[in-house]
């Protein structure tokens, strides 16, 4: 079963929507297997967003993501990578549809509330960047029989 890395960014933490974000993925039927509130170091930020190193907004992006605590999570479920990206919505909250997290709560591209892995490769990479394997739990939920 697939896993993904999702993270409430510093703006989402400051605006008290961690619970709302968790609630959406829980209600969808996904399972939370790991989570922590943490400050991202400069080094982790640069590694995590390494694909954007050459972009003009890279400096700003790193500064923003290290500006306050984030809520890092690992979620599990069928096609969780692509389905959660749909629930997150387009990168620019002004283009993100209502009903998506960015569409409902964001307004500006550099403060877009949440990060989600965009492929199986990035999910694996980002999960191992943020979590030790002992920090992830594995458990069966009886309600899964009513989801799957
Ligand atoms: P993430 O889930 O955060 O990776 O977003 P994404 O996959 O939807 O977008 P992408 O990986 O292309 O960009 C990473 C992040 O860089 C975005 O979430 C934005 O916060 C930020 N970003 C993208 N474009 C701009 C921009 O033009 N200006 C600024 N300041 N930030 C940007
Ligand atoms: Mg991305």
Automatic annotation (TrEMBL):
<dbReference type="InterPro" id="IPR023005">
    <property type="entry name" value="Nucleoside_diP_kinase_AS"/>
</dbReference>
<keyword id="KW-0418">Kinase</keyword>
<keyword id="KW-0808">Transferase</keyword>
<dbReference type="GO" id="GO:0006241">
    <property type="term" value="P:CTP biosynthetic process"/>
</dbReference>
<keyword id="KW-0546">Nucleotide metabolism</keyword>
<feature type="binding site">
    <location>
        <position position="102"/>
    </location>
    <ligand>
        <name>ATP</name>
    </ligand>
</feature>
<dbReference type="GO" id="GO:0046872">
    <property type="term" value="F:metal ion binding"/>
</dbReference>
<keyword id="KW-0547">Nucleotide-binding</keyword>
<feature type="modified residue" description="Phosphothreonine">
    <location>
        <position position="91"/>
    </location>
</feature>
<feature type="binding site">
    <location>
        <position position="85"/>
    </location>
    <ligand>
        <name>ATP</name>
    </ligand>
</feature>
<keyword id="KW-0479">Metal-binding</keyword>
<feature type="binding site">
    <location>
        <position position="91"/>
    </location>
    <ligand>
        <name>ATP</name>
    </ligand>
</feature>
<feature type="domain" description="Nucleoside diphosphate kinase-like">
    <location>
        <begin position="1"/>
        <end position="138"/>
    </location>
</feature>
<comment type="subunit">
    <text>Homotetramer.</text>
</comment>
<dbReference type="GO" id="GO:0006183">
    <property type="term" value="P:GTP biosynthetic process"/>
</dbReference>
<keyword id="KW-0597">Phosphoprotein</keyword>
<keyword id="KW-0460">Magnesium</keyword>
<feature type="active site" description="Pros-phosphohistidine intermediate">
    <location>
        <position position="115"/>
    </location>
</feature>
<keyword id="KW-0067">ATP-binding</keyword>
<dbReference type="InterPro" id="IPR034907">
    <property type="entry name" value="NDK-like_dom"/>
</dbReference>
<keyword id="KW-0963">Cytoplasm</keyword>
<comment type="similarity">
    <text>Belongs to the NDK family.</text>
</comment>
<feature type="binding site">
    <location>
        <position position="9"/>
    </location>
    <ligand>
        <name>ATP</name>
    </ligand>
</feature>
<comment type="function">
    <text>Major role in the synthesis of nucleoside triphosphates other than ATP. The ATP gamma phosphate is transferred to the NDP beta phosphate via a ping-pong mechanism, using a phosphorylated active-site intermediate.</text>
</comment>
<comment type="function">
    <text>(Microbial infection) Catalyzes the phosphorylation of dZDP to dZTP, when the bacterium is infected by a phage that produces the substrate for the synthesis of dZTP (2- amino-2'-deoxyadenosine 5'-triphosphate), which is then used by the phage as a DNA polymerase substrate.</text>
</comment>
<dbReference type="InterPro" id="IPR036850">
    <property type="entry name" value="NDK-like_dom_sf"/>
</dbReference>
<dbReference type="GO" id="GO:0004550">
    <property type="term" value="F:nucleoside diphosphate kinase activity"/>
</dbReference>
<protein>
    <recommendedName>
        <fullName>Nucleoside diphosphate kinase</fullName>
        <ecNumber>2.7.4.6</ecNumber>
    </recommendedName>
</protein>
<feature type="modified residue" description="Phosphoserine">
    <location>
        <position position="122"/>
    </location>
</feature>
<dbReference type="GO" id="GO:0006228">
    <property type="term" value="P:UTP biosynthetic process"/>
</dbReference>
<feature type="binding site">
    <location>
        <position position="57"/>
    </location>
    <ligand>
        <name>ATP</name>
    </ligand>
</feature>
<dbReference type="GO" id="GO:0005737">
    <property type="term" value="C:cytoplasm"/>
</dbReference>
<dbReference type="InterPro" id="IPR001564">
    <property type="entry name" value="Nucleoside_diP_kinase"/>
</dbReference>
<feature type="binding site">
    <location>
        <position position="112"/>
    </location>
    <ligand>
        <name>ATP</name>
    </ligand>
</feature>
<dbReference type="GO" id="GO:0005524">
    <property type="term" value="F:ATP binding"/>
</dbReference>
<dbReference type="Pfam" id="PF00334">
    <property type="entry name" value="NDK"/>
</dbReference>
């Amino acid at each position: 079963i697939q896993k993904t890395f999702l993270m409430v960014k510093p703006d989402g933490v400051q605006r008290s929507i961690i619970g709302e974000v968790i609630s959406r993925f829980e209600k969808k039927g996904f399972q939370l297997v790991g989570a922590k509130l943490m400050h991202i170091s400069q080094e982790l930020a640069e590694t995590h967003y390494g694909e954007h190193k050459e972009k003009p907004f890279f400096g700003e992006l790193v500064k923003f993501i290290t500006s306050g605590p984030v809520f890092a999570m690992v979620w599990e479920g069928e096609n969780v990578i692509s389905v959660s990206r749909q629930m997150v919505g387009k990168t620019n909250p002004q283009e993100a549809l209502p009903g998506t997290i960015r569409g409902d709560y964001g307004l500006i591209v550099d403060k877009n509330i949440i990060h989600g892995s965009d492929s199986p490769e990035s999910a694996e990479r980002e999960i191992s960047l943020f979590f030790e394997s002992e920090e992830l739990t594995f458990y069966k939920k009886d309600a899964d029989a009513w989801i799957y």
